[in-house]
Amino acid sequence: MYQIKIEQPGDGPEIETLLDQSFGSDRLQRAAYRLRDDNAPVAELCFVLRGGTLLCASIRYWPIMIADQHPALLLGPLAVGQAWRGRSLGKTLIRHSLARANILGHDAVLLVGDVDYYRPFGFSTALTGNLSLPNPVEPGRFQGCELVPGALDGLSGPVEPAGRG
Ligand SMILES: CC(C)(COP(=O)(O)OP(=O)(O)OC[C@H]1O[C@@H](n2cnc3c(N)ncnc32)[C@H](O)[C@@H]1OP(=O)(O)O)[C@@H](O)C(=O)NCCC(=O)NCCS
């Protein structure tokens, strides 16, 4: 009944509505968006989940550079429509997209989000202790996940958008 598909340009307006409803219309002020300014999403890792024709959920990823030397991904936003929450759709989209990211050769993912939600997928604040974002974020929400064990070992420095020219 549910189908996961790569996000298409025509999905944009529905996704924007979902994101406004999920995060509020001031969401663009959030610190994680500073890594999305002057950046472009990783098209092959942006997915929508539909139930029939209805958009139920969306996930996006962005290219980032850690400490001027290590390419990685920023996950977010992830949103599940209010009516579809608690049915494992968020979990399904995360697992699907992380598996795909691994297949495509990415080795690490960062995000700003709720630690209790993301811990089961392998995210931890312990992996971002030496990394800094362009803007301060609430303590305890900046997390990393290694798709390849040790990928974030020894990295220290700023995290920046990787889509800038
Ligand atoms: C957070 C959100 C994506 C969860 O989507 P969902 O489809 O309802 O989540 P799932 O059903 O896949 O839940 C997976 C697990 O996380 C738990 N969970 C759900 N929301 C959670 C939260 N906010 N904090 C901690 N755990 C949470 C569920 O109980 C479930 O646990 P289980 O596997 O033991 O049963 C959704 O509520 C949402 O879009 N919220 C608004 C936007 C948002 O906060 N996005 C996340 C960015 S940090």
Describe the structure.
This protein has 165 residues and is of the alpha+beta class. The protein has one domain (2-161): Aminopeptidase, CATH 3.40.630. Helices cover 19% and strands 31% of the residues. It contains three helices and eight strands. The protein has helices at 12-23, 89-103, 115-118, and strands at 2-6, 47-51, 54-66, 70-80, 108-112, 131-132, 142-146, 157-161. Strands 1, 2, 3, 4, 5, 6, 7 and 8 form an eight-stranded mixed sheet that branches. The protein is globular and about 45 Å long. The N and C termini lie far apart (41 Å). The model has no long low-confidence stretch (mean pLDDT 95). The structure holds coenzyme A. Coenzyme A is lined by residues 22-23, 78-80, 85-91, 113-114, 116-117.
Rounded average pLDDT: 95
- Estimated helix fraction: 10-25%
Distance between the termini: 41 Å
As for the number of domains, it is 1
Biggest sheet record: 8 strands, mixed
Give the number of DSSP strands. Answer: 8
Secondary-structure-derived class: alpha+beta
Please identify which CATH superfamily we are dealing with.
Gcn5-related N-acetyltransferase (GNAT)
CATH architecture descriptor: 3-Layer(aba) Sandwich
| CATH class call | Alpha Beta
Order of helices and strands: EHEEEHEHEEE
Strand proportion: 25-35%
> Which segments are poorly predicted (pLDDT under 50) over 5 or more consecutive residues?
none
How large is the count of helical segments?
Answer: 3
State Rg: 15 Å
Name the ligand types. coenzyme A
CATH-defined fold name: Aminopeptidase
Q: Shape, please?
A: globular
